[in-house]
């Protein structure tokens, strides 16, 4: 039974979607569309909410610069607006992982568990920050699609490019829809993000870390570092997957998530 607060009275209601919630935060320069196999397959277990971050997908293309904190708060505001019961599970891929870690820092009491996919804890190096500025210049001079065109050959595993033309086209379509404001704004957010390494040892919730064995953008060694530093964590390295394991190997990705959710919510029922 849920409750909706109005000015005059509290109305109780039943909701067929009264299941725990899984928030899916997309990577750069993508949108909630990247979670299509999860939206299709995880709905029997959880209520899945996948926002388009500001500047991406169907969300407004507001001018930047953005911050990781602002992006985490956008997600928190959405879940609050939807009256989602807490705690819920927060899953972020790559830039979405940076946001998930910030979400945990800001709202730890709302987080039942974290799923960190294809991401890293560390901040950008000075060289990395300069690279973000160069990429933003490229976007401003040649359009946001110049950035996605540069990134596309590195987004997935070499085997995916050989075997799954349809998926490559799907990812290209999502990436090329990103707005200039979104690309430039999110590049600034990633450039200026803080180092999450000190947070890792303090995470007081179960964490699932998922990484593609052939990730060309963030090496699996980053996932191993997080696994060693986070007290209650599991690590799943997915073979024949690059930076987008949820799309390249959706069955393996979804099975890992379902196992994690089942264990998590069994534990909660016992408590
Ligand atoms: C992403 O996939 O979200 C980005 O590649 C992350 C990054 O550039 O650090």
Largest sheet: 6 strands, parallel
Q: How many structural units, i.e. domains?
A: 1
Number of helices: 12
Number of separate strands: 8
Q: In CATH terms, what is the fold-level topology?
A: Rossmann fold
User: What are the low-pLDDT stretches, counting only 5+ consecutive residues below 50?
Assistant: none
Q: Which series of helices and strands comes N to C?
A: EEEHEHEHEHHHHHHEHEHH
Q: What global shape is seen?
A: globular
Helical residues, percent:
40-55%
Oligomerization state of this entry?
Answer: single chain
The pLDDT mean sits at 94
Radius of gyration: 18 Å
Alpha-carbon distance between the termini?
Answer: 20 Å
Q: Ligands bound here?
A: D-malate
Structural class: alpha/beta
Q: Classify the beta-strand content into a percent band.
A: 15-25%
CATH class value? Alpha Beta
Q: What is the correct CATH architecture?
A: 3-Layer(aba) Sandwich
| CATH homologous superfamily (4th level) name | Alpha/Beta hydrolase fold, catalytic domain
Description of the structure:
- The chain has 271 residues and is α/β, with parallel strands linked by helices.
- It has a single domain, classed as Rossmann fold.
- The strands form two sheets. Strands 4-3-5-6-7-8 form a six-stranded parallel β-sheet, sandwiched between helices. The chain has a two-stranded antiparallel ribbon with strand order 1-2.
- Strand 1 and strand 2 form a beta hairpin.
- Helix 2 crosses helix 3, helix 4 crosses helix 5 and helix 4 runs antiparallel to helix 8.
- The two termini are 20 Å apart.
């Amino acid at each position: 039974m849920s409750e909706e607060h109005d000015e005059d009275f509290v109305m109780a209601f039943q909701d067929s979607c009264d299941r725990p919630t899984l928030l899916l935060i997309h990577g750069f320069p993508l949108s909630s569309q990247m979670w299509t196999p999860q939206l299709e397959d995880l709905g029997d277990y959880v209520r899945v909410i996948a926002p388009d971050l500001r500047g991406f997908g169907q969300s407004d293309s507001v001018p930047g610069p953005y911050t990781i904190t602002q992006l985490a708060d956008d997600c928190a505001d959405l879940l609050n607006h939807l009256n989602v019961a807490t705690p819920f599970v927060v899953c972020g891929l790559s830039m979405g992982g940076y946001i998930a870690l910030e979400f945990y820092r800001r709202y730890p009491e709302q987080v039942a568990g974290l799923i960190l996919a294809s991401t890293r804890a560390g901040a950008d190096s000075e060289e990395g920050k300069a690279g973000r500025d160069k990429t933003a210049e490229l976007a401003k001079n040649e359009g946001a699609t110049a950035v996605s065109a540069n990134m596309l050959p590195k987004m997935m595993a070499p085997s995916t490019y050989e075997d799954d033309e349809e998926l490559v086209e799907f990812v290209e379509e999502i990436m090329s829809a990103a707005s200039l404001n979104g690309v430039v704004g999110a590049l600034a957010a990633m450039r200026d993000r803080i180092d999450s390494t000190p947070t890792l040892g303090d995470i007081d919730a179960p964490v699932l870390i998922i990484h593609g064995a052939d990730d060309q953008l963030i090496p699996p060694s980053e996932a191993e570092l997080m696994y060693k530093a986070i007290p209650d964590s599991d690590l799943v390295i997915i073979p024949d997957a690059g930076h987008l394991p949820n799309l390249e190997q959706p069955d393996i990705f979804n099975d890992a998530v379902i196992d994690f959710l089942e264990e998590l919510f069994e534990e909660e029922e016992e408590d």
